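Q: A reviewer asked whether we had any structural model of the full assembly, not just the individual parts. We don't, so I'm hoping you can provide one. Inputs are below.
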Amino acid sequence: MPGITITGLTKRFGDVGAVVGLDLTVRPGELVALLGPSGCGKTTTLRLVAGFLTPEGGEIRVGDRVLSSAAVVVPPERRRMAMIFQSYALWPHMTVTQNVAYGLRFAGVARGDRERRVEEMLRAVQLAGYGARYPGELSGGQQQRVAVARALVVEPEILLLDEPLSNLDASLREEMRFEIRRLHERFAITTLYVTHDQAEAMVISDRVAVLREGRVAQIGAPAELFEHPRTRFVAEFVGKTNLIDAVADGAGSVTRGTLRLRVAAESLAPRAPVVVSIRPHQITLGAPGRDGGDANVLAGTVVRASYLGDAVDYQVAIDGSDVVLRVAGAAPARSRPGDAVALTVPASACVLLPATDDPGRSDAGRGPS
Amino acid sequence: MPEPVAAARPRRWEGWDRAAPIWLLAAAALVGLILLPLGWLAYMSVRSDAGFTLAHYGRVLGDPPLQKALWNTVVLAFWSGLLALVIGAPLAWLTARTDLPWRRSIQHLVMASFVTPPFLGAFAWVMLAGPNAGYLNRLYRDWTGAADPLVNIFSMPGLIFVVAIYTFPYVYIMIANTLGLIASDLEDAASILGAGRFQVARTITLPMVLPAILSGFILAVLQALALFGSPAILALPAGFHTVTTQLWAFFQYPPRVEMAAAFSIPLLLATALLLLAQKRLLGRRGYAAVGGKGGQRRVIRLGRWRYLALGACLLVLGAAVFLPYGILLKAAFSRAWAQPLTAENFTLENWSFTFLYSTTQSAIVNTIELGVLTACIGAALATLLAYVTNRRLVAGHQVLGVLAVAPVVIPGVVLAVALFVAYTRPPFLLYGTLWILFLAYLTKEMPVGYSQSEATLRGIHPELEEAGRILGAGRFRVLREITAPLARSGIIATWCFVFIGVIRELSASIILFTPNTKVMSVVIFDLKEEGQFGAIAVLGVFMLAMTFVTVVVMQTVLGRDVMGGRQAGGAG
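A: Here is a predicted structure for the entire assembly that you could use as a starting point for your response.
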């Protein structure tokens, strides 16, 4: 099972740089999600890997074969890949069995074997017995599973998925996330998965690559990205967060006006501008006058408490500062707007990020490999 | 990350698109088809034994009778376009937005008018409104005892009328389609504020539809400019020429090719400019964009105006369909077409005479052969070209798209002159064979074929093909196994469109035919010289029958009305 190595990939459409010097490595058998807002280049990257687009620069390698470069692009039919499209792209004039069996004809599989493998795969995606139906007779979720079966049955070296769940309703989407993860663990194919849904990326992937403006902003395991974002953009895109612009004081703390926070970072140059990211669920809301130990304790007033059923979303204004922090608390709400409260923030929850978010900075793309 | 010592690189040829030669061949065929004759035309218009000259232009534009022909053409095009607008726009509104009774039937009748060859309509109207024997005039004289006829169809107003009743469907289609895009909520917003239904029509609907109206007017004018049959039948006996009849006259023995070439260019320029104006009006999308989000459309109740509106529609359709078809049928079965259809007047001799006459037989065979050949090759070429431009397979595909619809700018007579010039010399000595007619038809019908193919392919998502390719199927296999089956009904529709266009074509055929290569439309024209109205009627009815059978096939295959309506239970 080969891996994918992408180096310096560049693709322009007119004067717009969709992909700008992108570097990415997918290890054999790994599932990497390409996550980002629309226009970040994730679908373009996927289509370059599939061979539908020709890059202007850079290289795409699978194993030790160079498949795409500015000079030559191996056509899609010879790349030994499979793809699941956002629209599923099931052929309406063929039955489910014919759809799923299509790729097996070019893999040199004998007819008897073909039928057997198609049946096995339909069973694996829980569509046994649906072989004679046409795609038009199936529900959205069933069509999606046919698309999955069609891709997996050819035993590709590389599997590509282009936002396959975005056409499903919310509950089905959640169910299918687990299904796709289960199938990945069973078949262990090197996979590239494009999505704009951060929760989906976290559930499904081994590693997530956050893309911004044609480059990788950060790549790492979901926990790594969530707990140790390296840029403001990543911190905001992956999960909710509070961002505070502050200044380092050179002694393991940062200050903003009268607010002082102990942070978990090596000593910084004094007066260096920084951004502090604090996840709402890492802040504890309590009665005033608590002792937090080593943690930061901030006195504040509740501005808003929104009841969400299984949680409460607080907005707390910090006394003596212009900072307003979002806090995730447990239901039922224990504080009401106007109440004085104390927020406990461990130093380890205060993550430092560079003050300026330059996507062109070369080390922003180097996550832990 | 250390680089592997030896990476396997693909050979250069692996990246070549194996289908490229096919696309390039199709593109080259298109370029040759259109640019070659036009190039010759331009060349002939400035050529003389002494080299480059503008003398032909000088003679053509400075000659008073020719100037008169130009002026007549302008008058004809403008007024018939206006009349087509006056007929077509309200009709479109009535059928598309109101509760007019018998809407579906009226739509079908407009379609019948659309596929009726205008020259057949002109013949029918000669039989109806000729000053001496015209049926309507006789009725008028019998009833009122007057000596003079009610109308004389052999006049400019007569010509304008006959042209308008067969070009109004273009206006109708354009406006009906646009009205179909406007959701009722925009009009409801006005009604709630107190506007009556005609006020709504005038102040809300009308401005939104204005680009479509102007565009429809331009289309009707373009059609009128290019017509040959109706002016030849109605204007020549009245003693005046249009540009198209004059061009034909240049080709009567001895042919004055340079003059014809020079005289063609102004017409070509005029149509090109008009088309440019029309494109501007419609914007890049090619249809009149309207505001609102689109959605449900409720019908407007006409109330007490219902039957008045219906009467007006039936009047129009009477002039375009009922009366002409009626008189053609009558003449087909009458010994003397001008006499009432009594038992003694009834005969089947016209039919036997026509179909046993060898010239007619070979003409019918020629027409059907050419129709089938042009439709098959035209549909294939149009589909291939639409595929190349739609999937952007070659650099410069936008130019291909423009070229494919460019022939609409070239009036049939001009195209015939250009083809005559291009193919009456070595190495392509095609004049005198059916092949030159084939080329004329193929070129002329390419825009219609291409537009239909383009619409078909736009309905097939590229991902359906990409899914095949990533699973291992090459380009051609995908085309054969995935695209073609899905495009099948669209391709059949393209075939039908081209076929219908070919069997009724007159303006190019009348210049390029030779005694051995006549087609039905030319024979009908010949019979006019001999006054054989019975035979004309028979051939006309036969031509209409072929056309309607094809239309029925097309609508069945497509599952919907070509006019944009939906058949009950159709796939839509």
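A: Points you may want to mention in the reply: The first strand of chain A starts at residue 4 and ends at 13. The two ends of chain A are 19 Å apart (CA to CA).
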